[in-house]
Amino acid sequence: MLLLLIVKGVCLLTFAKFVWVVKTVFSSFRILWQPRQISSNYKFLPFFLTITVVLAIAACNDNTPQPEKSQTTENCRIVQHAMGEICVPNHPKRIVTLNSAALGNAIALGIQPAGSATEKINQWPPYLKDKIEGIEFLGTWGEPNLESIALLKPDLIIGWKHNLQSTYPQLSYIAPTTLYDWVVNITQPDNWKEYFNFMAKVLDREDRGQQLWQDYNQRIEQLKSAIGDRYQNKTISVVVFRAGMIYSVGENSFIGSILSDVGLKRPESQRFTPDGSYSLSEETLEIADGDVMFITNIDAQENLSLLKNKPLWKKLKAVQQNHIYSVESTNWESSRNILAANTVIDDLFKYLVNTP
Which end of the chain is more exposed for a tag (fewer CB within 10 A), N or C? Predict the structure, then answer.
């Protein structure tokens, strides 16, 4: 029984340490034998090796009867997520969010994360500038710093499956980790809303979540009323400039769903896109033209300035009618949470209602 407990501990070690422990066990057996018996007893080495391996397998695959689920979930709740099911703490106090969407949603739900990853190094979304005090930066959402996460001693980690699947075992070792499959739902226009609902359930803040949706829908109705019928026969285009590339943003996207909620029409080319957006060239930019064009500009100010001096740009209907509006890219494109959605509504009031 003692040997079983020892080997059970070995299951937590690396393979190299496992080999070292096995050698130590064999050395202990040799000490028990008289020197004159060593050579004759080496024939038992395969026997001891077999016993050790069997014990290791038994220890690592412990089939000891488990407590009833009611006992194991006394302080936590079973939640389904992209990697299966997991028991999350009933009242998590130190959570870690590993993307900007999760960060904004957590804050909106009344929970201040202990730390978070963001889109860019040490760069917080501007709309959260008054809400991030005390939150530790944990790297980018593609490469979160596992050591920094562990040092925070979180009791819950929340992120996306597509960029954390490979590190999920390490994250789960640090704390219960729940992942949402953003990619599998990317063609759904309300993907960001489902992620918010997922977080509200994980954090046991569904009542708070419902209140936030009521507030969102109320603002949408106020905006629709303020706009009236002035854009009834006009199209609203959204284009992203990112690192020398141009992207047309479709209906099945974060921005697309908000514009759809308001009842605003989109250009034909932006009705639906396989991934929520698709790339354009300067020569094909005209297919994303509209009566109004919102531009989010990420690290491409120089490229946009050059484009504005070209004849193709000046032919756009939105340019000719002076209905080109530059908006904050973090709010409109990358954050995809309910707080960012409210900043988009602010912009729509600003440019579609208050701007002549």
Answer: C
- Is residue 243's pLDDT more than 60? yes
Q: What is the pLDDT of residue 301?
A: 64
CA distance 336 to 254: 6
Phi and psi at residue 157, in whole multiples of 5°? -125, 135
Tokens representing 43 are 């024939």
- Count of other CB atoms within 10 angstroms of residue 354: 8
Question: Which residues touch 177 (CB under 8 Å, ≥6 apart)?
Answer: 83, 86, 156, 157, 158, 159, 164, 168, 171
pTM of the complete model: 0.77
Helix H, strand E, coil C: the string for 175-240 is CCEEEECCHHHCCCCCHHHHHHHHHHHHCCCHHHHHHHHHHHHHHHHHHHHHHCCCCCCCEEEEEE
Residues 6+ apart with CB under 8 A from 332: 238, 254, 255, 294, 296, 340, 344, 347
Cα–Cα distances in angstroms (integers) from residue 286 to residues 221, 259, 260, in the given order: 31, 20, 22
Query: What pairs with residue 240 in β-bridges?
Result: 247, 296
* Per-residue pLDDT reduced to its tens digit, 248-276: 888 888 999 999 999 999 999 888 776 67
Instruction: At 158, list the tokens.
Output: 């929340």
Cβ-Cβ contacts under 8 Å for 312 (sequence gap 6 or more): 282, 283, 285, 286
With CA atoms as reference, report the closest residue to 100 among 225, 212, 192: 192
Tell me the per-residue pLDDT of 126-159, one tens digit each, with 9 for 90 and over.
899 899 999 999 999 889 999 999 999 999 999 9
What pLDDT digit, counting tens, does each position of 284-335 carry? 899 999 999 999 876 556 667 778 888 889 899 999 999 999 999 889 988 8
**Per-residue buried b or exposed e for 207-218, using 16+ beta carbons within 10 Å of the residue's own CB:** eebeebeeebee
